[in-house]
Amino acid sequence: MITDTLKVFVTVAEQRNFSQAAKLLNLSQPGVSLHIRNLENELGTKLMHRSPKLVKLTEAGEILFGKAQQILALYEEAKEDIHMLRDEVTGALFMGASFTIGEYILPRVLAEYAQQYPLVDVQVHISNTDNILQDIRAGKFHIGLVEGNVEAKDLKVTAFMKDEMVLIAAPDHPIASEKNVDFARLQNQVWVMRETGSGTRAYSDRLIQEGGLAVKRSFVFNSSQGVKEAAACGLGIALLSRWVVRKELESGELKEVPIKGTKISRDLSLLQSKDEPAVMAVLKFIQTLKTNVQSLYADF
Known about the structure:
single chain; alpha/beta; Arc Repressor Mutant, subunit A; D-Maltodextrin-Binding Protein, domain 2; seven-stranded mixed beta sheet; 11 strands; elongated; transcription regulation; LysR_subst-bd; transcription cis-regulatory region binding
């Protein structure tokens, strides 16, 4: 089909490299070259300047690139509409998720979603909140799932559930046996934290700032799993989502340290571009997410 050739052309144009495009498309490099050559013969013009290291579009190629993207998008939309006539949900669902959601909440939701809609190709990228925001704006994902306060007037932001943050420490940590601690007791402690740009890190920073706490030393990890393991090994105290540490709290590997008069909660939010067209695979995922919220709460 002509759409296959256009997809090859667009991929080469995006990658600016024939061999890289071939890898992404699971084609041989000669096969990719044949598609481009046939397309140039059909249109009667050169579409690309080729060199061993780089591919550059000609003026005609630039025109075709923009139109080809539109054609492929319309073709996918048409396929989806046709499948809907048969009550089938197909296509691709690309989403980004922050670490807490992507590693501890999303797998539960996806298990049900995949069972209901097995024809959807789901791809999940896990990163920190700031990176997911940037990728949504760049159009890399259909949706993003992030934690914490999100300032993004250019995006559609919908809170879908609440998350509780808890202060945790190793069982043999000096403050682990205390039923309640005040901020004075948290002075000059060693902290284990997420990296800057993480939704979880924002809440650690806020707690330290609002409590006027002096930090003796801090260790920074770029995953909640790393923070949790480090705290369990006695490296320091940490503020994490209850979702992240609930199994370790139940087993006694970690201890929750309540802070007197302080309860920390945050929104978990769904991000979408305001310009993103309604895709059935996305709509059905959002529906699955919302119907699963109550059962997720029930796990606590």
